[in-house]
Request: fold
Amino acid sequence: MSMFADIPVGVGEVYSGERIRWQDTHVEFGGLRVPYKFELVKVRGISEVEDGKVTVIGPDIKDLEPQKSYPLGIFIEVAGSQLEEELEGVIERRIHEYTNYIEGMMHLNQRYDIWIRLSKRSFEKGLNSFHMVGKIYSRLFKMELPIIERIQITFITDPEKVKEMYDYALKEYEKRDARARGLKDEEVDAFYGCTLCQSFAPTHVCVITPQRYSNCGAISWFDARASARIDPKGPVFRIEKGECLDPVKGEYSGVNEVVKMKSGGEIGRVWLYSAFGHPHTSCGCFEAVAFYIPEVDGFGIVHRGFAENTPIGLPFSKLADSTAGGRQVDGFHGISIEYMRSPKFLQADGGWERVVWVPSAILERVKDFIPKHLIDKVATEKDAKNVEELKNFLAARGHPIVKRWEEKAKVEAVARPAEEKVAPPAAPEVTAEVVAPVGISAAVGGFRIILKNAKIKAERVKIIRAKEK
Ligand code: SF4
Reply:
C-alpha cells in the first residue's frame, strides 16, 4: 500500500513541473499580489520537536474564499543527532521539490518570495487542508533525508502572524548568507552543482561556488557541500574544478564536463562570471535578472518583487521569460541577490562599473558591497523611467559607463574617414534563402533563428515549402 493512500491526490515526482494557470487555480499563496510570504527551516534540539505535529495558524485551505491570493508562512522545525544549522538552507529548498510532488500543487521560488497554487481539480478531489500537506511533507522529508529524526510543521495564514514571522525569517536568511561570505573560489578544490530545477528547466544546471551563490539565492557553497554529504544521490553534487581555463570569465574544465553531462549534452561551456558568450544557465527560480541595455552599453538588474516597468519598457515577468528555461541567453542572466555582493559579480563584463540601473529596494540591500564611488551613480526607478532619462542621468553623474561611450565614439571617428575613402556600394537587393540542414526534423526540435537588436525591412517575404527530393 502506498505511503500516501490516505491522501486524496497523487504524490510523486511524476507531478513535478506541473504549471497551474490562474483560471485553474482554487487558491494562491504568496506570489506578486501578496507582500508577506516565506518558508523557513530551523534545526532544533531533539526534545523541542514533536514528531509529525502539524499546526495551522489562521484559516485552513477549506475556509478560504476561492480564486484569491493569501499570505503564507511555512515554518518547519527538524531535529536529529547529526543535523547542523548548516543544513537548514538545503532542507528548506526541498520544500520546493516536495510541494511540486503533490498533484495539483505548484511551488515556485524560495525563501521570502514563495508562490504556491492549488488547482481546482485537486481541491475538488479533497485536498482541502494544510494538515494533509503537512503529512506529505513529514513523510517525504523523513524518507528522503533519514538524518531528520523528528519534524514538526506550522502553516501560518493569519496575515498579522505571517508579517511578524516574515521579519524573523529575513534575519535568519541574512545570518545564513553572512556565514558563507569571505571564502574564495581559489581556496577550494571543488564546486557544487544542483539540478533540482530541472523539472521546470530540463537543461539547467546551477554551479555553486564560494563566490557565486545559486540562482535561487537559497543555496550557498557551504549549504551545497553539506547537502552533497548527507544525500550523495540527491540533486546537489560535487564538481571537481579541473583546470581553470579562464580566471576572469570563470571557466573550468571540470565544470564544463559536468554541466555537459547533466544537461544531456545541451550546454558544453559555462562562463561563471559573464552574461555574454557562455553564461550560466537560468532556470526560473532566479531572484533577479541582469539584462543588457544596448543603448547605454550597460546592465540593468530587476528583481522579482519589482512590479513596475524597467527603463527598457519591460517588467520583470517579461524579462524573466526571455531568460528562463535552462538556456544560455546572451545578455540575459538569472542571478541571486547574494551574487550581487560577490567580488566576482559579472567580473568579465566590468562588474558593478557596468551596472547602470537597479531598483532602489535592491540597491539598498547591496549598497555595502558595491564600490563606494558608484553608489550615487547607479540609477534607480526614482531617477530614470526610460532609456533617454537613463542616458541623461548617467552622463550627469559621471558613471564610468560614460567613458566606454567616449572610447567607442573615438574608435568610430577614427574608422570613419577610412570608410569614407571607399564609398560603400549601394545595398543590393538581396534574395535570401534559408535551407534546413538535411535530416533535421521537427522531432529533434527543428532549428532556431535568433535575431538581436535587428531592424529588418522588406517589401515582401515569401516562405516556400521545400519540395521532397
Ligand atoms: S535555482 Fe539552482 S540551486 Fe536553486 S534549487 Fe534550482 S537548481 Fe538548485
